[in-house]
Design goal:
By secondary structure, the chain is mainly alpha-helical. It is 67% helix and 6% strand. Keywords: Cell membrane, Membrane, Transmembrane, Transmembrane helix, Transport.
């Protein structure tokens, strides 16, 4: 064990001496969580909208004030005619225009039915749909309180909406598990594969194999520093999420640690497998980025809902480890999940680890022969 410890220490010193790589590995997760938390968000906040108020009466101004007071919208422009409305949308001055019809207050008082038109810039389809949904929700509540449609007294039904686990619908709640999944698998798998491939590329792997170290000790010595780095990054992301973005931690730290350990081991085994099929560091990096980064972002449910994907992509997502990691972390952090809620993910991780290690051993023996 003394020889193993000396080898681990040597690998750690090698990483520490590479200041630029070390800084990237430590700063990248912090930068990403801040970017996703503050910049990349699916929430509507102070979106610039235009108001085409044909009525210019008290009821119309009430509705405008209600939209502005919501905090979701900022009245960016008062519009006087249809041509100005189209020009404002084309120039990007506003993202949506609310058209309040003439005689708005009078028709409201008579309960004769009022149609408020929402004209959105759909060049960004998802954003436009969200703007329309937010505005429709506000106008619907205004309708119920003031009887715009004349149905408030006929249908005495009140809809009460409650959002469990993320009441404010904050996008950063999804960012924390997603960034952890991406960072851990990239650092553990990519850096491990590059580290081992470097030894083969420089011809020093043969020297290590004839050294007093056993093959498993060489592998452990290579991956141990990246386990520590991965844990540091996981803790960094969690602390930023919890203390800066107020992401809740409702479940057990014990089960969160277990799921992180298994995910890191899975990523390391994947990195070892990549190193057995890569002839150079460049190839290892390319395979790691192509096989890990894009699938983690696109097919894990991190950004795009899996349920909305085509059948083929849903099938591909089912063999992506980050998908199950994100599900498990969300269950633990937001729903106070225990073993019974994550046992499937634990089994899937164990199966992936066994499969990748078996393939790595097979490929390694073939290369030696």
């Amino acid at each position: 064990m003394k020889k193993l410890w000396v080898f681990i220490k040597k690998e750690a010193i090698h990483i520490i001496r590479d200041k630029r790589t070390l800084m990237v590995l430590l700063i990248m997760p912090l930068a990403q969580i801040l970017i996703f938390g503050y910049v990349i968000t699916t929430e509507i906040n102070q979106a610039r909208i235009g108001i085409f108020n044909k009525a210019n009466d008290y009821a119309g101004y009430q509705l405008v004030n209600r939209l502005a007071a919501s905090g979701y919208f900022k009245i960016g422009k008062m519009i006087d005619n249809p041509e100005e409305m189209e020009a404002s949308l084309r120039k990007g001055e506003v993202r949506m225009v609310v058209v309040i019809p003439s005689e708005f207050g009078k028709r409201q008082a008579e309960s004769s039915g009022v149609e408020v038109q929402l004209v959105a810039d759909a060049s960004e389809a998802n954003s436009a749909q969200m703007l329309v949904n937010y505005a429709r929700s506000i106008i619907t509540r205004f309708d119920a309180e003031n009887g715009l449609s004349g149905r408030a007294s006929e249908i005495p039904v009140t809809i009460e909406t409650r959002m469990f686990y993320n009441p404010a619908l904050k996008g950063v709640f999804m960012s924390v598990p997603g960034i952890m999944a991406m960072i851990l698998i990239l650092i553990s798998a990519m850096m491990t594969s590059i580290s081992i491939t470097r030894e083969k590329e420089y011809g020093s792997m043969e020297i290590l194999l004839v050294s007093p170290l056993k093959p498993w000790q060489i592998i452990v010595g290579k991956v141990a520093p990246y386990i520590i780095l991965s844990f540091i990054n996981a803790v960094t992301i969690l602390l930023v999420g919890i203390f800066i973005f107020k992401v809740p931690m409702e479940g057990s730290w014990w089960w969160l640690t277990i799921i992180n350990i298994l995910y890191i081991l899975l990523s390391l085994s994947l990195g070892i497998f990549i190193s057995t099929v890569s002839a150079s560091q460049m190839v290892a990096m390319f395979i790691s980025l192509f096989a890990l980064l894009l699938p983690t972002v696109l097919l894990s449910g991190f950004i795009y809902p899996i349920e909305n994907m085509p059948v083929l992509l849903r099938w591909l997502s089912s063999i992506m480890p980050p998908r199950y990691y994100i599900q498990a972390v969300k269950s633990i952090m937001f729903k106070a999940g225990s073993f019974m809620s994550i046992w499937k993910e634990l089994l899937i991780f164990a199966a992936f680890i066994v499969a990748f290690m078996a393939l790595s051993i097979k490929n390694f023996k073939v290369r030696l022969s």
